[in-house]
Amino acid sequence: MSEFSLDLDEDQIQLQKWLHDFAENVIRPAAHEWDEREETPWPIIQEAANIGLYSFDFVANAFMDKSGLLMPIAAEELAWGDAGIALAILGSTLGLAGIAGNGTPEQLMEWGPQCFGTPEKPQLAAFAVSEPDAGSDVSSLRTKAVYDEAKDEWVLNGTKTWITNGGIADIHVVVASVDSTLGSRGQASFIVPPGTPGISQGQKFQKMGIRASHTAEVVLEDCRVPGHCLLGGKDKLDEKIARAKEGKRSGGQAAMKTFEGSRPTVGAQALGIARAAFEYSLEYAKERKAFGRAIIENQAIAFKLADMKTRIDASRLLVWRASWMGANGKEFTSGEGSMSKLYAGETAVYVTEEAIQILGGYGYVRDYPVERWHRDSKIFTIFEGTSEIQRLIISRAISGVHIK
């Protein structure tokens, strides 16, 4: 097990610089354009693929890093450039996490590389959980998976919503109910391969923020996938269902296994937004003069910046701790993954709002980036579990009481 350390080694420092340079020179100059266009930034994804950033190998190496810090470092730096473009680059990682968390090693090696494609032909992946009537309550999923034993195929029917890369992805990882009487214990995850009939994009959402990231409904109509596309395999699923029916522990829930691993990375993205807004408003406060002096000389401004910096550093500590714990197989006994996502997400909203206040009217117009950062920040208190859900997870973990 790797010892927990806040000191980055030379390789990590070089990686951080490489990512920051890409964010500064490629992502940030394009951020306003793709926010206005509200389209997937394929040219940026292509550039990321060309240098090996958008690739299965990069993400696999980051996940295998025993310090646990490579993925949060990457997420923070990319989101510092722009949160929407960062999510366009990192969105496929969630599909990969769904495969890694629920599939066999063989399935991971078969489908993992297809989540990203090649530098010559980049591909996308999506993780489809949320539904119109089941957002935070994943135990209420209505999407069904029925096994056709004669053909060794699973037939999927239902509608997913709020899906990053939904409908345009090459690989969809879909969580569906195989036994609705068991709630979340009766769910499984399935790979929907490229070109599978019966899967389509529904409504594409026009969002407040992260507008360079594609979000849409995914519609499944008699969508047939081969038996080997059931993540983990049918024998494992049958054993899980049997244990659940007997009232025994049946193992982790399909969606939660993915979210537990991804929450610190989501927190790191929020951290990147907060850091961008803090750095920008700090420089502005040093240069902006009012009543004959720089506005940072006023406690009203200086104290805001002090609070912003304190919350950012506290968020990073929570994110890095949870990431290290996850990489070293340490159980989240107090909801540490949820703590990191909760605090970093709410910090991003707080810091970007304070940045707007520091800039005054300039912070409210699109000529300056802080209004975009504020719009982008809000989603981090909503997706992959709202702040309320994170507090529920934490309170249950620290009390041992099933709080509702």
Report on the structure:
This protein has three domains: 10-115, Butyryl-Coa Dehydrogenase, subunit A, domain 1, CATH 1.10.540; 125-245, Butyryl-CoA Dehydrogenase, subunit A, domain 2; 254-399, Butyryl-CoA Dehydrogenase, subunit A, domain 3. The radius of gyration is 21 Å and the shape is globular. It has helices spanning 10-37, 42-50, 56-64, 70-81, 83-102, 105-111, 234-245, 254-287, 299-327, 336-359, 370-377, 387-399; strands spanning 125-128, 144-148, 153-164, 171-177, 187-192, 199-204, 215-226, 289-290, 293-294. Helix 1 runs parallel beside helix 4 (70-81). The strands form three sheets. Strands 2-3-7-6 form a four-stranded antiparallel beta sheet, with helices on one face. The protein has a three-stranded mixed beta sheet with strand order 1-4-5. The chain is α+β, with helices and mostly antiparallel strands. A hairpin with a 4-residue loop joins strand 2 (144-148) and strand 3. The longest helix is centred in the last third of the chain and has 34 residues, at 254-287. The mean pLDDT is 93.
List keywords for this structure.
Butyryl-CoA Dehydrogenase, subunit A, domain 2; three-stranded mixed β-sheet; Butyryl-CoA Dehydrogenase, subunit A, domain 3; Butyryl-Coa Dehydrogenase, subunit A, domain 1; alpha+beta; 404 residues
